[in-house]
Amino acid sequence: MFGRSLYAVFAVLALTASACGSGQEGYASIVDKAKAEKKLVIGVKADQPGLGLRTPDGSFSGFDIEVAKYVAKQLGVEPAGITFKETVSGNREVFIEQGQVDMVVATYSITDARKQKVSFAGPYFVAGQDLLVRTDEAALTGPETLNGKKLCSVAGSTPAQKVKTEYAKEVQLQEERTYSACVDRVLGGQLDALTTDNVILAGYAAQHAGKLKVVGKPFSTEKYGIGLKKDDTVGRKAVNDALTKMFGDGSWQKALEASVGASGFPVPAAPQLERY
């Protein structure tokens, strides 16, 4: 009797363990999982208007979402087979490494440090760091004007530290978990500015028209990539091939104009992929 009970416990534990993993455990590549299951779990942002935003009905919209859907379809997964999982800047590598997601499409800048932990396809977009301030703020015209001011960015991202190191050593840095939390504090007057990529800031400026503005003086180059498991070279090639097709058939420009164009952000040409 005891043996049967113990067996039942182990069986339940095994089922629970298998249910917990949502990424590509058991598959050498995202390509294999997509082919076998016709399903993918994709990490995205949930609070970035025009890029990755959770809508009131629980679905997601934005340019990153459209890129994710296009790439997934090229891998053989229809939109109905995609589970979007919210990520924030501080957990993207962890989610990929732990197998909680199969890939991340979340305004994810390609850096050498991140390449030590994950693999990147892309870039599928190139942005530049800028500042978001209240519309009645005339003194803040660039990063060098931030000395003595309170500047917000998010945990796990590097833009605010870049400002302090390179432009304004006396800036007061404030970290929040999400960009939307920073926006709320700038709107409320507790903080003076938010710094991150211009295309992200443009979405917030459009969302709060008449209250917030983008300074319009980019001071970095941010290449957005699609994050995958570090050793998934097959998957990286397949995703890059999908992006090449998206650039060439007009889908990339159409998605960008539909999601970001309304904010007034100038739509650039598609970037050059950096295969490695």
Give a quick rundown of the structure.
The protein is of the alpha/beta class. Helix content is 37%, strand content 24%. Helix 3 runs antiparallel to helix 10.
Describe the structure.
The protein is an alpha/beta fold and 276 residues long. Helices cover 37% and strands 24% of the residues. The chain is built from ten helices and 13 strands. It has helices spanning 2-20, 30-37, 63-74, 92-97, 112-115, 159-166, 179-187, 198-207, 233-248, 251-259, and strands at 40-44, 47-48, 52-54, 60-61, 82-86, 103-109, 118-127, 129-134, 150-154, 172-176, 193-197, 212-214, 222-229. Strands 5-1-6-13-7 form a five-stranded mixed sheet. It has a five-stranded mixed sheet with strand order 10-9-11-8-12, with helices on both faces. It is globular, with a radius of gyration of 20 Å. It starts with a helix and ends in a 17-residue tail after the last helix. Residues 5-21 have low confidence and may be disordered.
Structural key phrases:
276 residues; alpha/beta; 5-stranded mixed beta sheet
Helix content: 25-40%
- The H/E string reads HHEEEEHEHEHEEEHEHEHEEHH
Distance between the termini: 58 Å
Largest sheet: 5 strands, mixed
Q: Report low-confidence residues grouped into runs of 5 or more.
A: 5-21
The 3D shape can be described as globular
Order of strands in the sheet with most strands: 5-1-6-13-7
Mean pLDDT: 90
Report the structural category.
alpha/beta
- The total strand number stands at 13
The tally of helices reads: 10
Question: Mind telling me the C-alpha Rg?
Answer: 20 Å
* Percentage of β-strand residues: 15-25%
